[in-house]
């Protein structure tokens, strides 16, 4: 019987390419495994809202830079070299580099707070800080470089003497990064084995100013030179090499202008000859590039862009909270208008959720875990929610959010937000294809072992894992009939998690068709994300006032996720199987108007909530510091109040021609 089932399952599992298999094997699992098992463990000990909190010295260092560079774009301008040099002097370019190579090797929690603070005031400076600390060659060298490469390059990267960039994508390889990637060939030149490659890279961050350049290409070896003359392990395939500026044939001639957001981004082109010793990790690492990139991306994706979304969201939300308390129309503060409150509360809950999820994920990463599904969902959730927060803030500030000038904090975020969404895997792809698909294969306790048993044609292992899967699926199916009162957030979340796990097993029955059923996959990714972020909100210790806010956010996330469960059930492609899951539809809920008003009153009057929003953002030198000052003046008819109010509501005025 097992042989028959074995053959049936082999028929439905998706065909997985070599690159997908490497992506699947990269990184590890964490809470995502519990969610797919349908049992969220109660909060782990040791979690702390304040982990990584910046001390006065770190705050002063960052603030001095922000004071110097303001909120202005750093590129195109010769200014950019000063900025890189100052970031190096401030020791902010080697946060992931070992101290023995001149770096500062900080915990992720601290790195994230530094990036959030920079991003809250100057997004272009934040990008210039992020790349050297994430996907620039620094991290690749740190993990895979030869000792000689590490000694040669890491101290210079940490000090800012080397400005890095990494070129993977080009006009024909965007989301499908290795699909039509540049091709290199192993050749023999003057008796030496070399690589000849033509590159055509675009969108490469820092490329116009970089002097240490990582490039990825597909290495081919038609004459079998690697096998006969290369070190053991060297093979054809995606390969990563390091070049210095001025390498013969390397062209760094043009730049792009992504939304005038003001950071260097451009092209790498040319036909080059590269020695095997320039491969990151040396010649033995030829052909290992995709695995190396996947391993590094799996952490980086969960840190820089979420930190940046956190910084901008907190800034915009804190500013909006103060603004609606004072901006007056129709003889009342706009915060007293229910429609404005509703918009504000939605943005506030997104910001609170981003902050908790970032904080929680950083602690997972600092524990040494590399959960690739979680870092992927963090990238798309935080950048997507960050964009919503920004748009809501702009609605609330009205015209003053649109007109540029000294009081405008929005335009720079508006220019930068789509960039965070497009890079490191566009969100449509990450949400609709990768997160749940990779989750099924990686986080699900049985699917990957079953898949491997089939690949190895191991009937005995297949039987063990198949039996495990059937048992767990049956248990979760019957547990899904439970009902929970919506009053207790933890119980509600626990049931949602069981029903998600159960629904995942039914969606898994679609096999390879999941790749085409991208709307179902995207909705499953959202449910998984909302469970994860709710778990973060409930797990982090907090004060009573903050706990209340977190519980409202969990209710909001559960409302969203339950609606999506219904959507997946209603659209399940097989009408017969659909009948089995219909009983698990939810009665849809939305936040009541009473709750919206209640949470608003709580938020605007709670110093603890203010403190969370203000943490890791740079308030000086912006309209926000003026709003804070306005908030301290009790007499709203005083001349001091009125003068400051009029200053705050003014927008940039420029001489007409
Ligand atoms: C400002 C900026 C900085 C960048 N920095 C770097 C860098 O430093 N180094 C580097 O190597 N690259 C960099 N990139 C490249 C970036 O990673 C790619 O832009 C990104 O992967 C998307 O590729 P694309 O823009 O060609 O979009 P396309 O691949 O053409 O995708 C178009 C749309 O289709 C969607 N899509 C594609 N395939 C699928 C699918 N199978 N299922 C569902 N949806 C799909 C995508 O999500 C997207 O919405 C940068 C890009 C930008 C814009």
Structural class of the helix and strand makeup? alpha/beta
Low-confidence stretches: none
Number of strands: 8
What is the CATH architecture assignment of the domain at 305-421 and 604-649?
Answer: Up-down Bundle
Specify the helix fraction band.
Answer: 55-70%
Percentage beta strand? 5-15%
Whole-number mean pLDDT: 94
The small molecules bound here are: flavin-adenine dinucleotide
What is the CA-CA span between the terminal residues? 85 Å
Q: Return the CATH topology of the domain at 305-421 and 604-649.
A: Butyryl-CoA Dehydrogenase, subunit A, domain 3
Helix count, per DSSP?
27
CATH top level assignment of the domain at 305-421 and 604-649:
Mainly Alpha
The CATH homologous superfamily of the domain at 305-421 and 604-649 is called Butyryl-CoA Dehydrogenase, subunit A, domain 3
Whole-angstrom Rg: 26 Å
Largest sheet: 6 strands, mixed
Tell me the overall shape. flat
Tags for this model:
657 residues; alpha/beta; Butyryl-Coa Dehydrogenase, subunit A, domain 1; Butyryl-CoA Dehydrogenase, subunit A, domain 2; 6-stranded mixed beta sheet; two-stranded antiparallel ribbon; 8 strands; 56% helix; 9% strand; binds flavin-adenine dinucleotide
Question: Can you put this structure into words, describing what you see?
Answer:
The termini are far apart. The model has no long low-confidence stretch (mean pLDDT 94). The protein is 56% helix and 9% strand. The longest helix is centred in the middle third of the chain and has 29 residues, at 338-366. It is flat. Among the domains are: 56-162, Butyryl-Coa Dehydrogenase, subunit A, domain 1; 166-287, Butyryl-CoA Dehydrogenase, subunit A, domain 2 (Beta Barrel), CATH 2.40.110.10; 305-421 and 604-649, Butyryl-CoA Dehydrogenase, subunit A, domain 3, CATH 1.20.140.10. It has 657 residues and is of the alpha/beta class. Flavin-adenine dinucleotide is lined by residues 166-169, 174-175, 203-205, 258, 265, 419, 422-426, 428-429, 432-433, 518.
């Amino acid at each position: 019987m097992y042989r028959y089932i074995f053959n049936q399952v082999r028929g439905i599992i998706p065909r997985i390419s070599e690159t997908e298999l490497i992506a699947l094997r990269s990184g590890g699992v964490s809470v995502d495994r519990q969610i797919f098992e349908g049992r969220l463990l109660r909060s782990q000990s040791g979690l702390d809202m304040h982990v990584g909190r910046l001390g006065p010295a770190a705050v002063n260092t960052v603030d001095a830079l922000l004071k110097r560079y303001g909120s202005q774009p750093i590129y195109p301008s010769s200014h950019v070299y000063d900025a890189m040099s100052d970031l190096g002097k401030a020791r902010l370019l080697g946060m992931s580099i070992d101290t023995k190579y001149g770096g500062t090797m900080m915990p992720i929690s601290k790195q994230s707070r530094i990036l959030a603070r920079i991003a809250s005031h100057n997004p272009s400076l934040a990008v210039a800080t992020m790349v050297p600390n994430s996907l620039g060659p620094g991290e690749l060298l740190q993990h895979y470089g030869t000792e000689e490469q590490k000694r040669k390059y890491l101290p210079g990267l940490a000090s800012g003497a080397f400005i890095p960039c990494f070129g993977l994508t080009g006009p024909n390889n965007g989301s499908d990064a290795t699909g039509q990637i540049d091709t290199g060939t192993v050749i023999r030149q003057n008796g030496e084995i070399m690589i000849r490659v033509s590159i055509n890279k675009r969108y490469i961050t820092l490329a116009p100013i970089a002097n240490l350049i990582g490039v990825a290409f597909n290495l081919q070896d038609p004459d079998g030179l690697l096998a006969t003359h290369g070190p053991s392990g060297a093979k054809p395939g995606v390969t990563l090499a390091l070049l210095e500026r001025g390498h013969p044939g390397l062209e760094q001639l043009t730049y792009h202008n992504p939304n005038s957001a003001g950071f260097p981004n451009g092209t790498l082109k040319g036909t080059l000859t590269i020695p095997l010793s320039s491969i990151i990790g040396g010649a033995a690492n030829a052909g290992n590039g995709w695995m190396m990139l996947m391993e590094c991306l799996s952490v980086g994706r969960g840190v820089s862009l979420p930190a940046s979304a956190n910084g901008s969201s907190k800034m915009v939300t804190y500013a909006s909270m103060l603004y609606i308390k004072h901006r007056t129309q129709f003889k009342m503060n706009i915060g007293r208008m229910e429609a404005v409150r509703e918009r504000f509360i939605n943005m506030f809950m997104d910001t609170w959720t981003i902050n908790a999820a970032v904080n929680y994920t950083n602690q997972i990463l600092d524990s040494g875990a590399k959960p690739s599904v979680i870092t992927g969902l963090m990238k798309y959730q935080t950048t997507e929610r960050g964009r919503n927060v920004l748009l809501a803030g702009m609605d609330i500030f009205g015209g003053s959010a649109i007109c540029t000038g000294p009081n405008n904090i929005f335009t720079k975020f508006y220019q930068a937000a789509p960039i965070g969404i497009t890079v490191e895997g566009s969100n449509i792809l990450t949400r609709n294809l990768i997160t749940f698909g990779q989750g099924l294969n990686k986080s699900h306790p049985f699917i990957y072992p079953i898949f491997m048993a089939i690949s190895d044609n191991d009937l005995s292992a297949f039987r063990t894992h198949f039996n495990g899967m059937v048992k767990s699926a049956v248990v979760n199916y019957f547990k899904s009939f439970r009902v929970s009162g919506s009053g207790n957030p933890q119980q509600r979340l626990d049931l949602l998690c069981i029903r998600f796990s159960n629904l995942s097993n039914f969606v898994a029955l679609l096999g390879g068709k999941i790749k085409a059923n991208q709307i179902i996959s995207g909705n499953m990714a959202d449910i998984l994300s909302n469970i994860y972020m709710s778990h973060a909100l409930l797990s982090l210790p907090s004060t009573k006032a903050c706990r209340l806010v977190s519980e409202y956010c969990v209710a909001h996330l559960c409302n969203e996720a339950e609606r999506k469960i219904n959507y997946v059930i209603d659209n399940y492609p097989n009408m017969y199987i659909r009948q089995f899951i219909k009983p698990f539809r939810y009665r849809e809920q939305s936040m009541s108007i009473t709750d919206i008003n209640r949470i608003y009153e709580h938020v605007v009057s709670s110093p603890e909530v203010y403190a969370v929003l203000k943490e890791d953002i740079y308030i000086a030198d912006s309209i926000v510091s003026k709003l804070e000052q306005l908030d301290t003046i009790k007499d709203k008819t005083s001349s001091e109040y009125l003068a400051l109010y009029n200053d705050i509501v003014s927008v940039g005025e420029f001489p007409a021609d």
